[in-house]
Request: fold
Amino acid sequence: MKKTLLLLSLVALPALAGEGKWTPQQVLELDPAALRAQGLKLPPQRLWDPKRGTGLLAGTVNVGGCSGAFISSTGLVITNHHCAFSIIQEHSSPQRDLITQGFLATHREAELPGKGSRVQVPRSFTDVTKDMLAAVPAGADDLTRAKAIERRQKELVAECEKRPATRCQVATFDGGVQYMLVDAVELKDVRLVYAPPRGVGEFGGDVDNWTWPRHTGDFAIVRAYTAPDGSSAPYSEQNVPYKAEFFFPLSPQGVKPGDFVMVLGYPGVTFRAMLADEMAERQSRHYPRIIDFYGESIRILEQEGEKDPAGKIAVASTLKSLRNVYKNAGGQLEGLKRGRIIEKHREAEESVVRWAEKKPQHAEALRARSELLSRQKEMGKTWEREFLLNNLKATARGIAMSVTVSRLSRERARPDLEREPAFMEREHPRIKDQLEREQKNLFLPAEKRLFQAFVRRALAFGPEERIAAVDKHFGAKATEKDVAAKIDAMYAGTKLLSLTDRLAMFGETEAQLQARKDPLLAFGLDLATEVAALDEVKDSRDGASQRLRPEWRRAVMAHAGKPVAPDANGTLRVSFAKVQGYSPRDGVLYTPQTTLSGLLAKHTDAEPFDAPDKLLATAQARRLGAWVDPGLKDVPVAFLSDADTTGGNSGSPTVNGKGELVGVNFDRVWENVANDFGYNPDIARNVNVDVRYVLWMLDQVENADALLRELGVRKGPPVAQEKR
Ligand code: ASP
Reply:
């Protein structure tokens, strides 16, 4: 009897829990009763009203590839410390080391502008699938198809961006089953308001990254500004705080185990729609090579950074992002193996095949799958070369920057709509900001060693994978000594590392660049030719995928017979979840919350477990303010939920059923890194900073009185009468 009851109650559970990064449109199509049963207290339309482009999702913003949320009507945005890191680094020097000390703007004028930082506020999503597909000429080959699709994308984006301060994108879902025009307002004046010291924002550092239990206060607060008339404008002293119509009030009550939460944000990429063989390639080649290549770059940056305090600051940001990718790769490998994800995926794929074999209407899907599989095999031949050229960001900045400047000069000579998307006019301000920002990342001794490592790899390639630019500039038979000498000469003779010269190069034609006879640039111009040729190959591959993958995906979805959330693609999504712990392995149970006492116990006084003195003093004196969790009898620091998240969800608001902010998502647990390939409810856990830790820091540790009043958490005179 008992058994039957248990079974029944399981079946009756809403089918939506956990899995699925739902698009705003899908949220409105999901069963509202199931959402209510799960804990959503608002009508789904309060999340998103497509007609008006309003709702809580309009308060969920894209912060340069991360997510964030408005938390006041005065443009305050909460995101992760690691997402605001480049602004923090930009304003840091050995004399005023904001990375280590943290930063609090005591009044508005003190807030620190972030070069090139932007916040995008969503405005509308329009299905443009028919329009996109109609653009493909009948009988088009793959390259023509890809170019036609790209062209139509560009036209739609150009049309959409005629409206001032607008950033648009045509996003592809399920490999081309659907195309969506996403329209957002772009705010260009973003300033740092608060960043905790590194010992909070990065407590546990790389050791704790991608793990649980966690005690990291990975949050920061920035503010978006507009021109006095409310329009988006670049930084100016005259600018005023953005008036956010939708924002998330902070919930001082926070969460407890079992509570319903939603994670809203901009997940970047996932691979669940891949074929099992494609997944296997990532397991056997991609992640191992990431570990090898990024690992080498990390070692170089660490060793060189250790030798010089200014060098250490210069390499900090690059090192942080490389380490994140590196450790992630290890987690993917472990997770794929442990969860038998590829095997399970293969079984599921085969059952779709068996099902489709009996359905003549899906014959095309089967054919598409076979062609995708044979194309996958073909790609293998030049895989290593492609990997290296695709990962220039993990090598010397000089290589990446010289290629960017070179490509820009060539692409600029073509009409805007014919350029590679990354070099169109609309991207120029971003490219320029990036080239400028790089100045902070440059550290010559590390540069040279990274360059050398790149050349060494290229020289080791077999005949089919030669990189001609490397052979030409270094000699196919160059010894280590030759290479080192050549690189010394390149860096001695280049102007690319000077900001003024680099910005001048940004506007030059190819002939002008050539005329400079700059040795690093000369290498970049040659390498850029190869990178551009590779882009063409990729375009043609994309065309094949656009032709084949939708066929296969339609069969998979028909077979599922229920709503299937598409893979992440950088667009706004919602995940419905529950606060809960998990069992990472046999005999071990993790509880879903951590506390200040746990943080103190982890503190060692040495990096990365080196909490700042002011935090320690406050915590040891038990000055806990109003932020104690009644169950834990302590200030909660982080919590777990079973939301379906990935990279890009960093900084996502985690909100309760009423739409109040209870946390900020910043990571996943080790066992769940490979959820990019498949969701497993037993271990799918994302890690959030608890809003009460944020409030405790601001209140008890930082005495950020004005900020707390602005957030409506502390009583006091209205914000407008204050300086803040
Ligand atoms: N920590 C992650 C990031 O860096 C978030 C995640 O992947 O879950 O984006």
Remarks:
- The first strand starts at residue 60 and ends at 63.
